[in-house]
Amino acid sequence: MKTEVVIRNDILTVLIGDHITDMDSSVLCIYDFDWNRYLSPWKHEKVFAKGEAFAGEADLFLEEVLGLIPEGDWKEIIIAGYSLAGLFALYACTKSSVFTACMCASGSLWFKGFTEYLKENPVRCRRVYMSLGDREKDTKNPVMGKVEANTLEAVHDMETYTSVYFEMNPGGHFSEPERRIRKGIRYLHLH
Fold first, then answer.
1. Dist CA 165 CA 129 (whole Å)
2. Which structural domain range is residue 163 located in?
């Protein structure tokens, strides 16, 4: 695992799985680790024939993430992630009240049991930004094909108790991930 911290102001973005440091906020990037092992909230079978199963060690990873947050008088701490890291960001917000906002871009909400988990374990943050590509559901993989329906269900459920902004972007899962990450974080900085 690699990390980089850049301090700019009293807003901290904890970016999971990506290394983007040129933001308007302070940033803690945590990247270069085994996503299937550390970002999955519980064990899950592999979803690709040549892929690996998910180990379900998100709780252990969350402990590490919380320990990496630099001490400071933070006005806000945003956790952000794309794909499986987006799922982890939402999961982290159900486990910890440290995060004031969550950015989940193209989150892996196809993950079996996650929407049901969110119904029983609400996020503790004040604001959530969710986005998805309008073609992400158009996949031959039947598990991943549930991503749009599950994401919309999660948005609907979370809207009953916290502020949620949902945005549909053009394209599939791999269409401009860095732009989508920046867009979501920028939204949370402004709202």
1. 5
2. 2-190
Query: CB of 103 within 8 A of CB of 165?
Result: no
Q: Give the full edge-to-edge strand order of the sheet including 101-105.
A: 2-6, 26-31, 11-16, 76-82, 101-105, 127-133, 163-169
Domain count, the chain: 1
Rounded Cα distance between 32 and 137, Å, is: 27
- In sequence order, the β-bridge partners of residue 44 are 54
Reported as a single tens digit per residue, the pLDDT across 128-140 is: 999 999 999 999 8
The CATH number of the domain holding residue 9 is 3.40.50.1820
Give yes or no for residue 50 having a pLDDT over 90.
no
- Mean pLDDT of the residues in the chain: 97
